[in-house]
Amino acid sequence: MNKPAIAIDLGGTKIKIGLVQGNTILAGTAIDAHSGNGLQERLPFVAAAIQALLAQQNLTVTDIAGVGMAVPGIVDSVQKRILSIDKKFGDAPGIDFESWCTNALGLTLAIENDARTALIGEWKFGKAKAVDNVVLITLGTGVGSSAVIEGKLLRGKHFTAGILGGHSVINYKGTVCNCGNTGCVETEAATWSIGAKVKAHPAFAASTLANECLIDFESIFRLANEEDFLAKQMRDESLDVWAACAINLIHAYDPEMVLVSGGIMASSSYIIPYLQQKTDAHAWTPWGKVKIESASYPDAAALLGAGYLVTNE
């Protein structure tokens, strides 16, 4: 059996670390990301957390195949560099991760965009297993995407292929996105943007959303279930945004299946049937209907995929 790998998922709030072997996370830990302060200052804490995790399992680095890192940005997986990253860990493009991994841990490194590693986890071990054409959408702080086409992970010449679904334009008269474009999927319905959108609505003061300490999709779906008129409007508009994103990805990549993952999928029992109905009605797929499915590993797929890259690429 292959040696286990160390997998790191660079989230904006938490940096998750797992000891991964195949489709199993043998052990895991997490540290605060403090992503607004950059990544360089967190790397010693990441290394210390890895060493502590190994010690807990009575392992040393000689028992480990390598390190896989999932990154919320555009990644050159060949040169093992972060090319561009949006807001979080702003200093990351200047860091030599391969040297850090060698010097701090004595291990080799695989590095990839987090939506791609999440799709790898689902493609190799989850609902997309044995599916040769599949797209993943992640609904969380932002909106991510990735694609496997004809049995190959899509990366592209400049490493952006498939991962910018959240930055496809669905409202050219919309607001400016973090990426500099106008009317992206993310500006219309992502956790980072939804609070401002709700508060700007003329009916906000009369809505029970005005009583919430935090306006996010948990509160929107909860209050929509309680028949709050603005929460229902925001919920339904967001669902239409995500459906448009799914249809754009279907038209671009011709998948058999679209997997939906991310923190918002706590409301999957409502989201998945809605997206299925919309894509059935509006995606131009004369061969049949694309399956819309919730991901098997919404919290762990990126770690599983990062581990897989260490031992299989």
Automatic annotation (TrEMBL):
- Cross-referenced SUPFAM superfamilies, in alphabetical order? Actin-like ATPase domain
Superkingdom of the source species: Bacteria
Where are the bilayer-spanning segments? none
Q: Which InterPro entries match?
A: ATPase_NBD, ROK
Q: Which family does it belong to?
A: Belongs to the ROK (NagC/XylR) family.
Designated name of the protein: ROK family protein
Print the organism lineage.
Bacteria, Pseudomonadati, Bacteroidota, Chitinophagia, Chitinophagales
